[in-house]
Design goal:
About 80% of the residues lie in helices and about 0% in strands. Helix 1 crosses helix 4, helix 1 runs antiparallel to helix 5 and helix 1 runs antiparallel to helix 6. With about 130 residues, it is an all-alpha fold.
Length: about 130
Amino acid sequence: MTWLLWSVCALLALLWTGTVAVGAELSDWLAAAVANGQAVDLAQTVGQWPVPDWLALWVDPAWLSLIQSAWADAFTWLSALLPATAGWAATLLTWVAPLLWGLWALGLVLMLLLTGGLHWLIARRGPVAA
């Protein structure tokens, strides 16, 4: 039973890591576009994002367009909140990817703690009767 628990945890960890990797890659690209002044129309810019080769093998294009539109909305909101002409706005946008990886680590730690706690509860219960 515990092997199933840890297998599900590993699968969820892989999905979580892939989602954060896609988000970090896209946010880095958008931050560079905002810093260079190329992101006048963010919705159009996101549609031109060159999908990395490693990502094209693993991600459904419909799912990728959903992530792209979510990041475009987030960066549009940040651009409206912080004027793009200010130099610190572009610097602040470069911190999105490290923040995502910090949230990834927190999520992974919580996932491992939950799985470890469930493992302990299963072991404490004893063997399953046939």
